[in-house]
C-alpha cells in the first residue's frame, strides 16, 4: 500500500445521495508523480492564499476526474480515501492532550531551529558588511526590529497528509469504487468509455473547452496534441440531437480534432465509438 498513491475524495456529506459531489484530489507530490507514470495527468488547482485570483502558476492539490480516480484504484495504482468534516470531528474526539502537546513541541522546536539559523546568517552578514566584532553576542547586534522580521519570515510547513484523517484500507477503497458507480448511471457509462480509451493507449484530460467530456491524446499531453474530442456516453437506444452533432463536428474540425460519440449498451461491456467530421470545411 505504501507504493500506491492516495487519492482523497473531498466534498459532499456522509449520506449516500451525495456521491456525485465528491471531488478526487491529490496533495502529495510523490503521489502525483506516481499517477503520472501511469498516464494520468490531472489538473493543478492550488493557488496562493495571498493572491487567490491568480491562475497562471497553479500548484497542488491536483484535481482528477472521477473516472481517472476509479481507473487508478481499479488498476491497483492508488487507493481512495473519503474525508469529510465528520471524520475529523471523530478523530478530534479521540485526541489526547499528550498528543497535542507533542505536536506543538515538535512545531516549536522546528521554528526554534529556523530562528537560530537566521540569527547566525544575520550575524555573518553584519560581520561582512559592517565589520562587526567576531566575538559580539547576538543580542548586541540583532535589534528588536530585526528579530521580528526574522520571526515573521520563518517557513511553516503545511503537511501534505492530515495527521487526523484515518488511513483507509484497500478493501474500503474498493467498496468506495462500487458505491460511487452504483449511484451514478451516467458515470458508469462514461467510465466504460474512459477505461476503453485508456486500454487503447490514450491519455485523457477534461474536454469542456473543446465541447466534449474528454480530449484524448495519443501519448503524454506534454509531447502530443489531442486528436479526439469525446462526448458523454449515451445508451444505444437514446436519440441524438442532430444540431448538436453538426455543431460539435464543425467545432472539432476547426480545432483539428475528431468529434467522437461513444455508445454503450447494457448487454455489452465494451462501448462502440462513432466519429463525425465536417467534410470540406475550411
From TrEMBL:
CDD domains: tRNA-intron_lyase_C (cd22363). One of its GO terms (molecular function) is nucleic acid binding. Pfam families: tRNA_int_endo, TSEN34_N. The active site is at 217, 225, 257. The keyword tRNA processing applies. Its EC number is 4.6.1.16. PANTHER family: TRNA-SPLICING ENDONUCLEASE SUBUNIT SEN34, TRNA-SPLICING ENDONUCLEASE SUBUNIT SEN34-RELATED. One of its GO terms (cellular component) is tRNA-intron endonuclease complex. Constitutes one of the two catalytic subunit of the tRNA-splicing endonuclease complex, a complex responsible for identification and cleavage of the splice sites in pre-tRNA. It cleaves pre-tRNA at the 5'- and 3'-splice sites to release the intron. The products are an intron and two tRNA half-molecules bearing 2',3'-cyclic phosphate and 5'-OH termini. There are no conserved sequences at the splice sites, but the intron is invariably located at the same site in the gene, placing the splice sites an invariant distance from the constant structural features of the tRNA body. The lineage of its organism: Eukaryota, Fungi, Dikarya, Ascomycota, Saccharomycotina. Residues 24-80 form the TSEN34 N-terminal domain. Belongs to the tRNA-intron endonuclease family. GO terms for biological process: tRNA-type intron splice site recognition and cleavage. This is tRNA-splicing endonuclease subunit Sen34. Gene3D superfamilies: 3.40.1350.10. Heterotetramer composed of SEN2, SEN15, SEN34 and SEN54. Interacts directly with SEN15. The keyword Lyase applies. It comes from the Eukaryota. It comes from Kluyveromyces dobzhanskii CBS 2104. InterPro entries: tRNA_endonuc-like_dom_sf, tRNA_intron_Endo_cat-like_sf, tRNA_intron_Endonuc_cat-like, tRNA_splic, TSEN34, TSEN34_N. Keywords: Lyase, tRNA processing. Residues 189-268 form the tRNA intron endonuclease catalytic domain.
Amino acid at each position: 500500500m505504501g507504493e500506491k498513491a492516495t487519492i482523497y475524495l473531498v466534498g459532499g456529506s456522509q449520506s449516500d445521495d451525495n456521491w456525485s459531489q465528491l471531488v478526487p484530489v491529490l496533495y502529495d507530490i510523490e503521489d502525483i508523480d506516481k499517477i503520472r507514470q501511469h498516464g494520468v495527468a490531472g489538473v493543478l488547482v492550488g493557488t496562493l492564499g495571498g493572491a487567490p485570483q491568480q491562475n497562471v502558476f497553479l500548484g497542488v492539490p491536483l484535481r482528477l476526474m472521477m473516472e481517472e480516480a476509479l481507473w487508478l484504484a481499479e488498476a491497483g495504482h492508488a487507493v481512495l480515501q473519503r474525508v469529510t468534516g465528520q471524520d475529523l470531528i471523530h478523530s478530534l474526539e479521540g485526541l489526547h492532550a499528550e498528543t497535542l502537546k507533542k505536536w506543538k513541541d515538535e512545531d516549536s522546536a522546528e521554528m526554534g531551529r529556523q530562528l537560530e539559523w537566521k540569527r547566525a546568517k544575520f550575524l555573518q552578514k553584519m560581520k561582512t558588511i559592517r565589520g562587526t566584532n567576531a566575538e559580539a553576542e547576538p543580542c548586541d547586534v540583532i535589534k528588536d526590529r530585526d528579530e521580528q522580521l526574522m520571526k515573521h519570515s520563518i517557513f511553516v510547513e503545511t503537511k501534505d497528509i492530515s495527521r487526523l484523517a484515518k488511513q483507509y484500507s484497500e478493501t474500503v477503497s474498493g467498496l468506495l469504487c462500487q458505491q460511487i458507480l452504483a449511484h451514478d448511471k451516467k458515470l458508469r457509462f462514461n467510465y466504460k468509455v474512459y477505461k476503453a480509451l485508456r486500454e487503447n493507449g490514450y491519455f485523457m484530460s477534461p474536454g469542456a473547452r473543446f465541447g466534449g467530456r474528454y480530449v484524448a491524446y495519443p501519448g503524454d499531453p506534454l509531447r502530443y496534441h489531442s486528436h479526439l474530442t469525446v462526448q458523454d456516453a449515451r445508451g444505444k437506444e437514446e436519440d441524438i440531437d442532430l444540431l448538436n452533432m453538426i455543431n460539435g463536428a464543425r467545432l472539432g474540425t476547426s480545432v483539428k480534432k475528431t468529434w467522437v460519440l461513444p455508445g454503450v449498451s447494457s448487454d455489452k461491456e465494451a462501448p462502440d465509438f462513432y466519429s463525425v467530421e465536417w467534410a470540406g470545411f475550411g
